[in-house]
Amino acid sequence: RAKEIKTKLGTLLQKPDSTIDLIIPYPEKPEKPAKAQKPSPEEALQWRDSLEKLLQNTYGLASFSSFLRSEFSEENVEFWVACEDYKKTKSPAKMVEKAKKIYEEFIQTEAPKEVNIDHFTKAMTMKNLVEPSVSSFDMAQKRIFALMEKDSLPRFVRSEFYQELIK
After folding, report:
1. Residue 134 · residue 87 · CB < 8 Å
2. Distances, alpha carbon 112 to alpha carbons 19, 77, 101, 106, 143, in Å
3. Contact at 8 Å (CB) between 111 and 75?
């Protein structure tokens, strides 16, 4: 099981194939991620108590995403990452474009990767999208972060893959 997870993680951490880059046009030049370096057991141990530290670490984010994918529950972390990317957007036109995409993919009812947020949060997010700003998804992102912290993180910490990291 651990080998299976390591293989999946290894696949995730590989650079994209240049032929795929030609097939899938990127709306803007993606930032090259720093080579994800396996954390020390001490560093990985900190993730137990801090989802924030886990998500800020390239290897931690990839590991957590891979774990959630294995449970068929990766929409929350994907939404969180999409919101982080959205907040870095400078161009108002691109912001509108990204906001629409995030809404359609994660927020709207029956969205392909619909995240589990309450009606009030969904309504406030929709209201915020009338005039998209850097903070349009803040409330929804905070709710999803809290959900991952309370639910997904404890499951990840109990997983075999995480247990291997802290040895």
Report:
1. yes
2. 27, 14, 11, 7, 19
3. no
Cβ distance 125 to 94 under 8 Å? no
Other beta carbons less than 10 A from residue 162's beta carbon = 22
How much is the pTM?
Answer: 0.76
pLDDT of residue 66: 93
- The alpha carbon of 100 is separated from its chain's Cα centroid by a whole number of angstroms, namely 18
Q: Is residue 53 packed enough to be buried (19+ CB in 10 Å), middle (13-18) or exposed (0-12)? A: middle
How far apart CA 36 and CA 59 sit, in angstroms, is 5
- CA torsion sign for 88, 96, 135, 117 is negative
Q: What is the pLDDT at residue 37?
A: 83
Give the integer Cα–Cα distance in Å for 164 and 145. Answer: 25
Q: Strand, coil or helix: what is 151?
A: helix
Domains of the chain: 41-164 (1.10.167.10)
pLDDT averaged over 10-residue windows placed end to end, the chain, 167 residues: 60 50 41 63 93 95 94 94 96 94 96 95 95 95 96 95 88
Radius of gyration of the chain (CA): 17
